[in-house]
Amino acid sequence: MKSLSFDAAVIGAGAAGMAAALELEKRGFKTAIIEREEEAGGILLQCIHNGFGLIEFNEELTGPEFAERFTGQLAGSKISLFCNTTVVSIDNGSENKELLCYSASHGIMKLSAKAVVLAMGCRERNRGNIRIPGDRPAGVFTAGLAQRLVNIEGYLPGREIVIIGSGDIGLIMARRMNWSGCKVHGVVEIQPYPSGLARNIVQCLNDFNIPLYISHQTMRIIGRKRVEGVEIAPIENGALATEKAFVIPCDTVLMSVGLVPENELSKESGIRLDSVTGGPELNSMLMTKADGVFACGNVVHVHDLVDYVVEEARRAGAFAAGWLEGERPGFELRVKAGANIRYISPGSLDVERENRLYFRSLVVKNNAVLELRLGGELIKTIKAGHVQPSEMIKLDLESEELARARQMTDPVLEVSLGDRQP
Amino acid sequence: MIKGGILLDQKKKYDICIIGAGVSGANIARRLSAYQLDIIVLEKEVDFSFGVSKANSGIVHGGFHHPKSQLKARLEIAGALMFPQLADELDFPWKRCGIVVAAMHEDEMRAIEHLYLQGVDNGAIGIEMCSRERMLELEPKLSSDVVGGLWVPGGGIVEPYRFVFALLENAKTNGVELLTGFDVNKASLINADGTEPLWQVSSVDGRKIEARWVINAAGLYADEVSSVFAAEEFEIKPRKGEYYLLDRMAKARPERVIFPVPTSISKGMLIIPTVEGTTLVGPTADASQDKEDVETVQENLDKILNAARFMVPAISERDVITTFAGLRPTLRGEFFIALSGKARNFVQVAGIQSPGLTASPAIAEYVKDILKKNGIELREKPDWEPRLKKRHTIRDAGAEEVDALCAEDPAWGNIVCRCENVSEAEIVAAIKAGHTTLDGIKFFTRAQMGRCQGGFCTYKIINIIMRETGLPYDKITKRGPGSEILEGAL
Prior knowledge:
The complex is a heterodimer of chains A (422) and B (490).
Chain A: E1 2-11, H1 15-26, E2 31-34, E3 50-52, E4 61-62, H2 63-75, E5 80-82, E6 85-91, E7 97-103, E8 107-118, E9 122-124, E10 140-142, H3 143-153, E11 155-156, E12 160-164, H4 168-179, E13 183-188, H5 198-205, E14 212-213, E15 216-222, E16 229-236, E17 239-240, E18 246-249, E19 252-255, E20 259-261, H6 264-268, E21 293-295, H7 306-324, E22 332-337, E23 341-345, E24 348-350, E25 355-361, E26 365-374, E27 377-387, E28 393-397, H8 399-402, E29 412-419
Parallel strand pairs in A: 1-2, 1-8, 2-5, 8-21, 10-19, 12-13, 12-19, 13-14, 22-29
Antiparallel strand pairs in A: 3-4, 6-7, 7-8, 9-20, 15-16, 16-17, 16-18, 22-24, 23-25, 25-28, 26-27, 26-29
Chain B: E1 13-19, H1 23-32, E2 39-42, E3 59-60, H2 71-90, E4 94-95, E5 99-103, H3 108-122, E6 128-131, H4 132-138, E7 148-152, E8 156-158, H5 160-173, E9 177-179, E10 184-189, E11 199-203, E12 208-216, H6 222-228, E13 237-246, E14 257-260, E15 270-273, E16 279-282, E17 286-287, H7 298-311, E18 320-330, E19 336-339, E20 346-350, H8 356-373, H9 399-408, E21 415-417, E22 422-423, H10 424-432, H11 438-445, H12 458-469, E23 488-489
Parallel strand pairs in B: 1-2, 1-12, 2-9, 5-14, 12-20
Antiparallel strand pairs in B: 3-8, 4-8, 5-7, 6-7, 10-11, 11-12, 13-16, 13-17, 13-18, 15-16, 19-20, 21-22
Helix pairs in contact in B: 1-5, 1-8, 2-8, 10-11, 10-12
């Protein structure tokens, strides 16, 4: 069994892992990335559509092009990249964390590091998770699996398609299947609004006349051996109108019903998770409750854009580098999701630093206003314009704004979404 | 294992033909393989254990649910006692975790007492009545509202398909021939006037075999097979059971199998810690008209969660990874295992519903005795091999062991299924053992059975099947013809 030692180990070579590792390397630390797939790049590699990089590179790239910007830098760096390698456990009991890795290329390795960055990304929710009843035939795929099959493996999972859920991957796949000569009979969304980005509704559904059934629930999947249809019914005034149920014939169902941070490894190594996001609870340094273990990207919470992932990952890499240089969290101010907010990440701020918060709305609202309360007292309001659950909100806070927290015992910053005052 | 397409030696006359490769047929085949007999097993599906045996509670029952006046109760008690030795010989996942029956109301304690007395009468070892405190000590996941119950330490859990696969693999080692895709539709006595009858059994696809004795272990289709042989007329009525499967990290996972107090038609909705680490909740019990109907229904799924949460409040919808249904082949509530009074040299093994899995090793003994009594000479094979070589899994092996395996074959280090920790080497072993459908590989290795339900590994498994078998992409199926996975190539 091989034993290797690094300053920092990054788990996952997707956008988050690569960006965090490059930051650590820039600060002079001996860094390893462990990646379970054959090559670095993560899910970007199967996202052959464009729309990536508008913020990061100020140009519109495809997923593989976006990934290449980072894999290119990796190749020119001293970072050790272990592909085809899966981390099966993390022992974070001591100052040196030990990662047990299984690999077809490298055998079984024990890799030790003083800092660990979790960047395992997320996985798709599936049929079972949302408990769609009915038959269990061939032809039910998650949208991401279908994307992999079409874009990388070169196979069509079916011809007559219904997509359940209007997440971005589902919308992108609606267009992709259409371009591949398949017929997409509709996208079924249980909410009264789509869950994907507005631009994807326009470019992937409207441009191809693909019907979007909002406020519709999937009643069951039909087909003994292969999918034969999907029965759906409208939700009217919050109740399922079963008498209006109808069947859409199809041979394939793609599920795009949300993503969940993939944290079984974190959980097994005793890292505490947030019950709303499913990601690790983080402090202002993007460090988990385990000292020296950091996290970034979709393993923390699911981001809208890879550009945001990269931005967060760079900060996590820099904080991990700071940690290795002896920096420790300062005066931590707990952050709380108030009215109309689903979650906020990270869970606390450092009152002596500039801070960045990401959060999601629970509601669709025009002319929304962000309200910040410190110890119950309104300290700031910010115009937020149009908000909706599918679009992440970003907020930067200066240290001066929070200085007063220092005088308070157990201070809490509550962030709410209200209406603009007339 | 021998595949469906293999050409048969048409002239060979088998001593025994077993129809159905579920848990009954597999046990009978393995038991009879100890004797100097030519045996063939015919299965209509593309793989074994694809019927009743694939979707059930996976429990080794405790011998207290039925009075011993019933054949099924006697075989349940005898079968349960045979599991430790079988598991030792055949290395399938099994654990004697014990069963608790939870009374949630004082009135239910009367039923508990009845079960206790029945269990004592049946000889259930170590059975005891429990106070509330004792129940919570035995199973802390139980609701604090529990008022008392029954503790049956002899009960256990088993992975049913792995049990069937192991039995058949061992039977094959001992000379039993196995055919899949053999859907019996015709049978005729070749020399009906002769002293020794010979059955010719035909499949829908035209294949034929000849055998002196036929054992009908066709599960849901035992009635149809019986009528093909002009034997007894009866009707197998499917009774559907729906289940939820919970993630292996679910907080609700108990240490014991938890039963409610049973009703007159079923043992009720259970919470089962599966032997491989997930948690199973169910089943319902609803009459069905259709032997292929394994559809799940919304209202039933809701019913399951509510009933189970009443006993174990930690059960959460967030932990659900899949839902499925299985069918019980019921025949007036009792097993029908007997020499046919109408068809010659024909043994019925029908109506094997719960506790069929538990009883199955004893069913094999029982069938062996029927054959012996009716003149089949049972001469032991001097070289019978009761043991199956242990199969490695990286899930159970330590790092050192995996390291050693990797040194021989790097495929042991390639984790294909990240949720259940299954290596490429295990997938290849499944394919080499004849499991070439996605479901067959799932039941053999557990790959695709975890929380992502194949979202990450399906394409990898498809590629491995194509590489190992040479099958083209459009011949890769979920569970046989008609369930093709891919519809085209770009």
